[in-house]
Design a protein that fits this description.
The protein is mainly alpha-helical. The chain has three domains: 6-128, no CATH class; 136-241, no CATH class; 250-365, no CATH class. The chain is 57% helix and 4% strand. The strands form two sheets. It has a two-stranded antiparallel sheet with strand order 1-2. A two-stranded antiparallel ribbon has the order 3-4. The chain is elongated and about 80 Å long. The N and C termini lie far apart (67 Å).
Length: 375
Amino acid sequence: MLIVDFRTLFRIMKKYISDGSDTPIFCRSVIEMITDLDESDWTNGSDPSQSVSDRTLRNFADRGFSKNLCKKIAYRLTLENLIENINSRPDDVKKALADEFKSYDPSVTKNNVAKKIANWLYNYIKETAGYIDKDALTTKKIKQSSQDYKTKYGNYLLKECRGNCPMKCGKSLAKEINGKLDYVYEISLIEKDKKDGLNNLIALCPQCFSIFQLDDDKTRIKELKLSKKMLSKHFVSEELLDPIHLEKGLTDVLSNLSKLNPMTISVSLDPKEISQKVTDPNLYLLVKNNVTTYFLSIKKIMINLDKQGVIEYEILQNQMRTLYLKMAKTKRSEQEIFYEISNKIHKTTLANKLYCDIVVSYFIQSCEVFNAVTK
């Protein structure tokens, strides 16, 4: 339930933290602080390249945000920015701001006014979007279920999402609390009318979790199911490939590769056989371009580093072949296999993903990755 209506909230905020800006400019500033959405996504304007009009912004300030806008930003809120902005103000400003709100909430002080305002805005956006809080008993049961799921599945689901909220907000679930790193998250059923289990559970940031419990939009559930599927497949691939230790010298290969200037490389290879290994059109173009440009240069780098004892080229070839064979057994698509192997190289070497892709392309041409298609 809202304690302060939006019009009053906006008026008081403008009085103390607008720095003299007029209503449209301050309204735009507030929206930019509380969401990471681009301005072109705030409304349904016919020309997304145009800024939101001053008239629309004045309407927002006077009448509040539209339901459509609130639904768009509910999962993309960055209220921390607003809190930081208010907390950076002088004490006398924060005290005056708090005094304005005391008639609505006597517990407001200069020390908590920023969080109070952020919380009021959050509740306003949530309710305007149509996400109405459930009764206290239901809310308690949902929170208890999340706690039970964390005890049973928490570690697995955190690894699956790699510590980031899979909703559009993408926030890190890791927080520094009293000088220690900890995970702050909740676990939700994806399809709330179905049984729990790893395939129907996902880790979310507390904010997205709270909103999702009130959101029965089938499109949202479909999006989350797709995210879960992708996260799960990638996690399984990482677990499969992790035991394979790549040559330490591969870092030197990638370092040498990064120093090459593609504008000065003499292209002299025509990779005719790639079409016999890669059938995906988009992947074919990527691999062909990489091989045409870099194959001979990488081969030279490999030979030189092998002679210097920096790498064992035959061992590296066998490792790449093993990576491919393990992925091939999982029936992944060509693109999935390509990028999972590239991710493995990236994770091992911390090299730019672009160069990892180029190295995988090299091993496709040299036959360690992908077999020729049987005619």
